[in-house]
Predict the structure.
Amino acid sequence: QVQLVESGGGLVHAGGALRLSCAASGFPFSRTLMNWYRQVPGREREWFASISRFSANEDYADSVLGRFTISRDNRKNMVYLQMTDLKPADTAVYFCNSESGYWGQGTQVTVSF
């Protein structure tokens, strides 16, 4: 069955860094565009990063551009999110998503002042 499993979340001080990972299985990962979203309670889930099938293209929301980097390893069926210069406004549950509509369970990222 399809699985997307995020990991790497946690508590970090403002200005710090975290690296999230998403392990994918059960679908043709290497042929699938992958996304990262995040959600704050009471607000809609927000897209902020995408990576094309063979890493040729990356897209970012303005809110994370220059601070976050999405990457993937098609040999390992993994997608990553390197987050730097974290801000309290980045506090959210972070979700891995495939363009085919699958979602992970999310991982909490909390950035303290």
In short: The chain has a mean pLDDT of 97.
